[in-house]
Each structure stands twice: as C-alpha cells, then as structure tokens.
Batch of 2 targets.
Target 1
Amino acid sequence: MTVQSRKSPPTHPGYLVFNSKEIKENPLNFYNRMWKEYGDLVRLPIMPNYSIYLLAHPSYAEHVLSTHQELYAKPDIVNKPFNLMMGESILTSEGDFWLKHRRLMQPAFHMKQLAKLADVMVSCTESFLQEWEKKPDGEVIDIAEETLRLTLKIAGQTLFSKDISDEDSVLGQAFRTGYEFINYKMNNLWTEPLWIPTSRNQGFRQAKQTLDKLVLDIINSRRQNPQNRQDLLSMLMSAQDEETGERMSDKQLLSEAITLLVAGHETVASGLAWTWYLLAENPNIIEQLQSELRRVLNGSNPSFEKLPQLEYTRRVFDETLRLYPPAWAMPRTSKQDDQIQGYLIPKNSLITVAAFMIHRHPEFWENPDQFNPDNFLPEKVNQKPNFAYFPFGGGKRICIGKSFALMEATIIIALISQRFKLELLPNQNIEIDPTFTLRPKNGIKVKLWKRN
Ligand code: HEM
C-alpha cells in the first residue's frame, strides 16, 4: 500500500521516556488525560522516531483490529513476558503458526462443546459457595480475591478436571507464581533478565519447571489411559487438522493449556469483581436481577438450556465489561506505513486501541459513566456502530473464549445472587489497577449475607 499522507495527528509535546513515572504509575489516567486533551487519535512520542498512537474511536478500532488487521501484529513487549510462561501459543503467535492453532482449538469452544462444561461450572460454583455458607452473616470478604479463586477453580476443572485453586495444589501454586511473574514483567519497563539469579527469577524458573512437569504428566497419563473425559484438554488432545490430519504435540498441548489458564481466569474474575461493586451501588438493578432469577429459575440452579432466558443477568455482565473492560487497551505494532483518518501511522509504531475510552465515548454512549444494563437491550445494541463495544476484541484475533466467559459469568452471577446479598463496606478506596487486566487495586470488601 502506498501511503501518501505525511500529516501527523495531534501530538503530545516532549518524549514519554521523560514522563515514564506517570505512565508507569497509572497508564489509564495518563491515556485518559491525553484523550481528553488531544482527541480520538493522539501521537505520544516515546523517543525520536518511535511513538505510541492512542486510538479512541470505534472506526479506528475497527481499522486496526478488523478491516486492516493484516497491517498490524501483537507487539513483542507484550508477547515476550507471556512466552516465558507458556512458550509460543495461540495468544502470542502470528501467521501460519497462529492459524494452525486457532483452527485446531476453535472446535473446543463451539457451543455444542461448551454445553458440556456448563454443569461443571455450576458444580464448581456450588462447592465454592458451600464455603461461603459456613461463614457467619455479615462477615467481610474481598470479592476480588474470591472471584479470582473461583475462576481458577473453574479453569482447572474445565481444562484438566482438577481443582488447582486449592492452597495445597502444587500445580496451582506453580501456576500462581508464574502468573505473578509475568504480571510483574509486563508492568515494569525494566526488569532483570531471566539469566540473572535473583530470587524472583529463580522462583519463576522453579515454578515453570514444576508447572510444565505436572501438566505434561497429566497429558502423558491421558495418552496412556484414553478415556472420554469432557474437559478442554481432552478436546484439544483429540483435535485434528482437517487437511493434514495432524494433532498437537505434547509441547504444543502444554503451551496451549497454560495459555488458556492465563487468558481465561483473571479476565473473568476481574469482570465479576466489578459486577458486584456496580450492583452494590445500584440496588434498583439488583431488584430487577432478582426478579428475573425468580421468574426463570424459581430457586433451581442455572443450566445451559436456561441461559438464553437469563437476559437481564447477561446484560448486567455486558454492561460491567463496558465500564471495566478487563482487556482495557489492546496493543499492536504497525508492520508497515498506514493511514488512519488521513494521518500517517509509520511502520513499527506502537498502537493502543483504547477499549476503556471507546466504551465511555460520549458520542456513542448516553451518560457514559453510568451503570445501565439496558444499554444492552437489543434495540439499543442495533443502533451502535461496530466497535463501539468490543471487550473481547475483534477481527480474526477475537477472544476464542468469549462464549465460555459469558456462560461462566452468567452462571456465577445467577448462583451468587440467588444465595447471597453482598453489601459494600463503606469508606473504601476503590481504585482501578490498570495492569494486565483491570482489577481493583486494593480489592473490594463486601459484607456477606445469606438470602433465605
Ligand atoms: C471476560 C473475560 C474475557 C475477556 C474480557 C477477554 C478478552 C480478550 C481479548 C480482548 C482478546 C483479544 C486481544 C487482542 O486482540 O489483543 C482475547 C484473546 C484471547 N482470549 Fe480472551 N477474554 C476473556 C476470557 C477468556 C477465556 C475464558 C478464555 C479461555 C478459556 C480466553 C482465551 C483467549 C485466547 C486463547 C485468546 C487469543 C486468541 C487469538 O489470538 O486467536 N479468554 N481475549
């Protein structure tokens, strides 16, 4: 493509290397400030000849993630920390490798397969809530920590049929150490290279060795005793390339299994933690939610068949992901010169597709900061342009776990709301931690009450 425009968009004066404290401390606040000051397409020079382009308009998001996606790739600064934990996988690869893996893995996420996992999600949540039942009324819990524990439990059971959320689970401990390490790598501009024997690096190496060994043991034992298990790992093990008949090697299975744990647990947990924060602040919405749950479930558990009727419950989660999208900024690098809205985007620039800002863009959302699940009534959704809402990304790299996540969240919201009332503890400093996902920085403390 020949790019004629040399026109540069509104640009922040000075280089970001000299502002790194503000960006490091709170990139979300910084980007928000840039958006408000400069508009929907801003150039943020990092150093000479290297800039971030902040995109905060649905049509720019559509350009990068969908219509011109072949001109953009996921950047190394994001891929490298992930690859330390899981090796090359669907999340971080490009080209033929990515396509091959996406084709192999996609069938495991089809509705027909997911239907088999709904009961697992229900029974995991039930056994988790049995612990809550034992707590005295009014006990304070951190709902952000709790949802993380619950989604890790569900991730382990749906993937390997194992509970890795248990404090005693060696696999769970190794996973959590590895996960904290990649979070640290992603959130710090400079970190010690892995070959330096710091205690953090050594801890990671050890955890990674343990994790790989335990997951490979599971894969081996399944190869030796092939039973028809209904979990994602068995689906991945039996997946076959339609053209070549090829299956995934043990190494590939290992990488993809760890990828699904990484990509699939904190994202859902963080969305759910904000759901309870928003619900606790909006009692009228809790009323409508309760009335739907009574009408559709009448005290019974949610099931795969009932999910389409839980429309309001689903809208509550959709709206939470609008206000607090776990993947709040989707990073890309430009593979060649491009042009957006007449502005030059030079090759090798860093692109931030700002879902957080687009989801609150006043041109596309009425009262953008207000929690209103009715924003997702079908008639309202139909009026919105593409990419006014895209918590799961878009184009060919759209989240493979989207239906899994929506099913899981709807089930969890229904089961918790049927059994418990969560009351926000007053005077808390609720802050967003804009790291890998958009989790609450100091947690969210709530009092737990059983419903009769
Ligand atoms: C609310 C929960 C979730 C959110 C908001 C979310 C969001 C996203 C987004 C935005 C992307 C695309 C990133 C980009 O283009 O830069 C993505 C990709 C991905 N997600 Fe999710 N996700 C969620 C849950 C899950 C779950 C439950 C799984 C697996 C069980 C999963 C697995 C993946 C994988 C493997 C990819 C990479 C797909 C590819 O590149 O082909 N996600 N997710």
Target 2
Amino acid sequence: MIGLAHTGKTFRGRDGAEVEALRDVSLSVADGEFVAIVGASGCGKSTLLRLVAGLVPASTGTVTLQGQAVTAPREDTAMVFQAPTLLPWADVLRNVTFPLRLMGKAGSDTEDRARALLATAGLKGFETKLPSELSGGMQQRVAICRALLQNPRVLLMDEPFGALDALTREEMSLELLRLWGERRMAVIFVTHSIPEAVLLADRVVVMSPRPGRIADIVEVGLPRPRSFDQEGSDEFQRCARRIRDRIFGERRAAAA
Ligand SMILES: Nc1ncnc2c1ncn2[C@@H]1O[C@H](COP(=O)(O)OP(=O)(O)OP(=O)(O)O)[C@@H](O)[C@H]1O
Ligand SMILES: [Mg+2]
C-alpha cells in the first residue's frame, strides 16, 4: 500500500543551511497494516508522515501509494497533525465534515456519522462549539474524528494522543483500534510512548537520531483484539524492552 524506497529528505533552512532530516529510509506498509514509529525528538518522524501525505517532496528515493508516485495530497489519505489544525471560525461539526464537503463527497448520512464519531470521542453536546471553546485535548479529538470520517485508505497520525490525559489516551487508543478493526486502513502512527506503540501496532519502527534512519523494526506478536491487560504479558515486555534498548543504544551511539 505505502512504499518508501531509499527515501531521504534534506531541508534548506531560512539561513541557507541544510538539515538532513531523513536518510535512506525503506519501508513498506501493507493495506490494513498498523505501523507505529518511535524515535527521539527531531529524528524526522513528522517529516516521514509529510512525505507520505504528499505535503513535501522527497529529496532522494521514492514515495509510492499503491504503486503510484505520491506528488500531492490524495483524497484517500487522511492526516492527524501533531498540533490540532482546526478552522477557528467553524464549529465542531463543520470542522469534522469539512474535508468531505470540500471534496464534494458529503452525503445525506455524513452529518449523522460525524455526530456518532464525536459521541464516541466523548464530544457529544459540543457539536456547535467553536475550537476556541474547547481544551487542547478536545480539539485534538475533533481532528481525529475529522480524519476518521473521511474513511481513508491511509491514515497518518502524528502523536495524535500527545495532548490527552492518560485515561482519555487509553480510551482513544482502544476506540482507534476498534474503528481500525472495522475498516482496516493502513495506519502510520507516530508516538513517543513505547507501551502505546506496542499495544496498537503490528510492527514498530524505531528511528535513529538525525538524520533519521530505520534502526530496527519490531514485530509485535500479541493477539488481537488488544487490551491493556496484555501489558503484563511476556510478548509485550519483550517488545517494549527491545524498542527501549534500541532507542537508548542509538542515543549512546549518537552521543559518542
Ligand atoms: N520545513 C522545514 N524546514 C527546515 N527544517 C525542517 C523543516 N521541517 C523539519 N525540519 C527539520 O528536520 C528535522 C526533523 O524534523 P521532524 O519534525 O520531522 O522531527 P520529529 O521526529 O517529528 O520530532 P518531534 O518528535 O519533536 O516531533 C529537524 O531537525 C527539523 O528542524
Ligand atoms: Mg514531530
């Protein structure tokens, strides 16, 4: 479904200096697969998502979706950004339905589906509020609902639960898994939380510090449906330990 082959990205800063954010990243994500990405701050995780979303072009190598080169944003790809990006003048319901209306794909059931999604995200009763009337975590939940309403084939999530408290975070993870179980889109999910990555993903990609490269890919053998009860299992502990060792190993190597 998603293919990165020897993909690299170098930015030129405003002062003209070059920053190599990603180097020689090769990764394929199958249709319906859930891949998590972890790695130190600044290692290029957001950049990788932006490449797949078609928001920035690769400097080297290729990015493909279903075999086609990604050159611009696509209708079948939805992204949840690291910071919520809502339209400040539109209420919650308008924000959630905005992409579908923009694409001319809103149907008679769009509003009902939006209301149902908002309800599962704990936002029932907030449909007519403006983003400025919501907390940061609530805004982020609206952005997640907006992405899910598009029913995308590819869902890109950049630390989507970062602004949420621990309880809401657990609830939203399980809700995301439930929706993903129903629709089985390809997901790339960036997180700083190792337990979250292991709980959610089929595979966890560990990135090395800048320039970001793939340091390791850990297959998570936990059965689905997943639940937080599995955190105590041997497989969970094995995966979490291997990811942690890798991240700290890479840090030591970068500092040496
Ligand atoms: N538009 C840009 N112009 C110049 N440099 C950029 C740009 N976007 C990202 N970078 C640089 O690329 C590197 C990787 O950034 P990126 O945002 O992808 O990291 P990240 O892994 O998502 O970090 P975090 O975990 O803090 O979100 C950083 O050094 C950053 O300064
Ligand atoms: Mg980021």
